[in-house]
Structures are given as structure tokens and as C-alpha cells.
Design goal:
Layout (H helix, E strand, L loop, with lengths): L2 E6 L3 H11 L4 E8 L14 E4 L12 E4 L6 H9 L4 E3 L8 H15 L3 E2 L8 H12 L12 E2 L1 H8 L10 E2 L3 H8 L4 H9 L5 H14 L4 H10 L3 E4 L3 E4 L7 E2 H5 L5 H9 L29 H13 L24 H13 L5 H29 L2 H4 L2 H63 L6
Parallel strand pairs: 1-2, 1-4, 2-3, 4-5, 5-6
Antiparallel strand pairs: 7-8, 9-10, 10-11
Helix pairs in contact: 2-3, 8-9, 12-13, 12-16, 13-16, 14-16
Length: 462
């Protein structure tokens, strides 16, 4: 027994579906439906006819599954719910932000007609999305990135062609080269992009800020490279200037990452344009009166103290507006793109006054217990939603769905807290090591500055 297939729309996707049917012996193409003149189509399958799109409902008893091959912009939002009244339907709707609304519309129509509707089938969303889901499920700390191209985006091209006055259009997707390089080098391009959009510092933005600072403090190339070395960078000069931070295997090329303004020639021009170097800002000492006894003051300890100090070193905590931010040590810069995660973890520790691993485990166990209870309540509501009495009463269905939505929101928050607890337990060990590395880096800089000062003031030096 074969499954009889109908195709709605005969563009590139429709022809691709027809080719797939030819390679599957359990499928049989019954008809093709089009908004164009059916006589103008040349089908690949012998004996199959093309019909006007309006004729589809009249063949509901001859087609088992209708595969919709229209565009996601305007075709599928209308066609899929409408045809779900007559057929089991499959579409490739790929406007990600509108998938929930599209699901609701198709679900309502399919339930009323007792048909099956499958939406967003294809590559992305579809098989590619499932591949990423499986990988994220089995990898404890997996990260996934998507790069398209070089190629034509059918959905975007279709949207452009629908603009009034556009006769034909193609939209090409070309990956950003520095984003590809970032993934190959093991960094986090999405996290860096997100941080840039939110105005937070990133690993690259801090390198750029260091280069700008070195330029402002210098009058010559020699001084420029000297200041960069004082900041801890290894320098390689060729067609491009490469800076490698301490503890990094790979360096960053200035012109490739920051543009033509950071070529050696343009850096020379910036140096020559300066009248005098800008000195490093050193805040004046503060005087204050102390009331009470520091020895008797209650201090924050344990996890809370560790996270507060680390967030301070990263510059996460707000500073006074009239004071420039401190340089973030190289050993800590990798965690800048995780600033929001660290802030959430610090808030959880502070809110629940968690200072030790025992307290953290006890709190996590309590949250897991709440998760189990609420999950069981939601399962009970789902079972009630499928009973005959509730199915016959739309008002009760809506009330139960509202209860389920409230429980789902609580579950989301509790799962987030469990994840934060797990991250705190693992991250606290690495944080201690990074703080120690930052202290050693600071001591090394002070020693280098001291040796440089001794060298300059040595007897016989002019």
C-alpha cells in the first residue's frame, strides 16, 4: 500500500519533493496544485496531472498527505490551516519567531477535522534543528553555531520578490570570515557578538582598547610596542600586527579584526598626529573617617566573597561615572562574555546566603524536590486535559491550559536555578585559579616596571 501525495506549489521546493517521491517506492504522487496555468507545468512523473490550487479541496478523498511548498512569508500561514481541514498536511514554515502562532493555527484546524499537521519540516528548522538538539542533549557543555553560505536564501529571496516594484531578486548568504576564524580558534563568536550588542566588553574589544591606550600614551613606534609589551602582549609584526595575550596559543591580527584603521601605516599616522602622550590615569588618594572596629565587622565569606571579588575584577559591578574602568587582567578576559551568567550566580548566592558547598548542595536538593512535585502536578493536568469531560468543555480546557502555563513558568525558573547551582559548584574551582593567575600577572607587571625604572635611572645612562 502506497501513501498518495499531493504537492501544493511547484517551484524549486515542489520539484525537489517530486524527485524525493520518485526515490521512495512507498510514496505515490497523485496530483500537483499550482496558482499558475496548470498547462504550463512540465512534471517529471508520468501520468500525473497538474490542477489549479482552488481544486485541491475537491480531491480530499484521493490524496492522503498534502505537502505544501509555498513561501513562509504569506503562503503557508494561510494555506496550511486552510488545507488541514481536508488533508493531513506537511509544510516547511521557517519564520522562527512566528512558529508558535503558526502551530496554534494549524493545530486548531487539524483538531477540528481530525487530521495530522506537521509544520516546519526541512533543514532549519527541521533536521538541522534536531541534530543540534541531540548534540546539546548529550554534550554537557556543548555550544552550537550556524554558518550558512555561500549560497542563495530561498526564504529571503521570496520575501524580497514580494516587495512592490521588485521584478526578481536573489539574496545570497555569505559567512563573516572573522566569525569563522573565531570558531576555529576555540573562542565564542556568538557570545562576543551578543556582548557587543548589549554594550558589554569582550575579549576582542579589550584588545582594541589596549591598542588605543598604547597609541594615546606613545609618540613613536618604539614607545607603542613598549606599552603593549608592558600590558603583557607578545608582538609579531609582518603585513599585519599580531598580538598574543598571556596564556593564549593563538594571536589576534589587528587589521583583520579591527579594520584598516589598525594597519601599521595608519597607526603611524595616529602617532604622528599627537602633540603629547596621554599619561595613565591615577586617581588621587582618598581620605575617610572610620567609625567602629574593622575586626568586629561582619564579613562575607565563602562562595559569596569569591564571586563578589571575581565580579569586581571583571568590572561587572558598576563604578563611579567620573572614573575610567580598570584594565581587566588577561587571565580573566575569557569570562567577560559570561558576565551575565556570573552575575546571576552571584545574585543567587547572595539572595539565599550560600557560602559553602554543603549549603549549595542542600539548596539544590530542595529545588530538585520542588521540581519533581510541580512536574507531577503538570502531568496530572495534562492527563485531565485529555479526558472526555474536559474535551467537551472548551472553558475548562482554557482554564487547565492556563494552570499548565503557570506551572511551566515555575518549572523554567527552578530548572534555571538547578543549572546555576551546578555551574557554581564547577566554576568556583576555576575562579580561584584565575584570581591567582591575575595576581601573578599583576606582580609580574610591577616587577617589569621596577626593572625598567632601575634601567632608566642607572648611573652612566643619558
Amino acid at each position: 500500500m502506497t501513501i498518495k501525495i499531493g504537492i501544493m506549489g511547484y517551484g524549486n521546493l515542489g520539484r525537489g519533493v517530486e524527485c524525493a517521491i520518485l526515490h521512495n517506492p512507498d510514496l505515490e504522487l497523485k496530483a500537483v496544485f499550482t496558482r499558475r496555468d496548470p498547462q504550463s507545468l512540465s512534471l517529471l512523473t508520468d501520468g500525473v496531472k497538474a490542477y489549479p490550487a482552488t481544486a485541491a479541496p475537491s480531491m480530499k478523498d484521493e490524496v492522503d498527505v498534502m505537502i505544501l511548498c509555498g513561501g513562509s512569508a504569506t503562503d503557508l500561514p494561510q494555506q496550511t490551516p486552510e488545507l488541514a481541514q481536508y488533508f493531513n498536511v506537511v509544510d516547511s514554515f521557517d519564520t522562527h519567531a512566528n512558529i508558535p502562532q503558526h502551530f496554534d493555527a494549524v493545530d486548531k484546524s487539524a483538531r477540528q477535522s481530525r487530521h495530522i499537521g506537521i509544520i516546519s519540516v526541512g533543514w532549519d528548522p527541521g533536521m538541522f534543528s534536531l541534530n543540534r538538539l541531540y548534540a546539546s542533549a548529550i554534550l554537557p557543555y556543548g555550544k552550537d553555531y550556524t554558518f550558512w553560505g555561500k549560497g542563495v536564501s530561498q526564504g529571503h529571496s521570496d520575501a524580497i520578490r514580494r516587495i512592490e516594484g521588485v521584478k526578481d531578486a536573489r539574496q545570497y548568504t555569505i559567512p563573516v570570515e572573522h566569525a569563522l576564524e573565531a570558531v576555529r580558534s576555540g573562542s565564542n563568536p556568538y557570545g562576543e557578538w551578543r556582548a557587543e550588542q548589549e554594550g558589554r566588553p569582550t575579549y576582542l574589544s579589550l584588545i582594541k582598547a589596549d591598542v588605543d591606550t598604547a597609541i594615546r600614551q606613545s609618540m613613536t613606534e618604539r614607545q607603542f610596542f613598549y606599552h603593549l609589551r608592558q600590558m603583557g602582549y607578545d608582538i609579531k609584526v609582518g603585513k599585519d600586527i599580531t598580538l598574543r595575550a598571556p596564556g593564549r596559543d593563538n594571536g589576534r591580527k589587528l587589521m583583520r579584526n579591527f579594520g584598516e584603521d589598525y594597519s601599521m601605516e595608519n597607526i603611524r599616522k595616529r602617532l604622528l598626529a599627537q602633540h603629547r602622550p596621554q599619561r595613565e590615569y591615577r586617581p588621587p588618594p582618598k581620605r575617610c573617617w572610620l567609625h567602629g572596629d574593622l575586626k568586629q565587622a561582619k564579613k562575607v565569606t565563602g562562595f559569596r566573597a569569591l564571586y563578589f571579588h571575581y565580579c569586581y575584577l571583571l568590572g561587572v559591578f558598576p563604578k563611579k561615572q567620573n572614573r575610567p574602568p580598570k584594565r581587566v587582567p588577561h587571565a580573566l578576559r575569557e569570562d567577560l562574555i559570561r558576565a551575565q551568567e556570573l552575575t546571576d550566580e552571584a545574585r543567587l548566592l547572595s539572595h539565599h546566603r550560600i557560602d559553602t558547598l554543603e549549603q549549595l548542595n542542600a539548596y539544590q536538593s530542595d529545588v530538585r524536590s520542588q521540581l519533581a512535585d510541580i512536574t507531577e502536578q503538570r502531568k496530572s493536568l495534562y492527563r485531565k486535559l485529555r479526558t472526555k469531560a474536559v474535551l467537551a468543555d472548551p472553558a475548562r480546557q482554557e482554564a487547565i491550559r492556563a494552570e499548565i502555563a503557570v506551572l511551566s513558568a515555575r518549572l523554567k525558573g527552578l530548572r534555571r536555578e538547578v543549572k546555576l547551582c551546578e555551574d557554581i559548584a564547577q566554576r568556583s574551582v576555576s575562579i580561584r585559579g584565575k584570581i591567582q593567575a591575575a595576581r601573578e600577572e599583576a606582580c609580574g607587571k610591577e616587577e617589569n616596571a621596577r626593572q625598567e625604572q632601575e634601567r632608566r635611572t642607572a648611573p652612566g645612562r643619558r
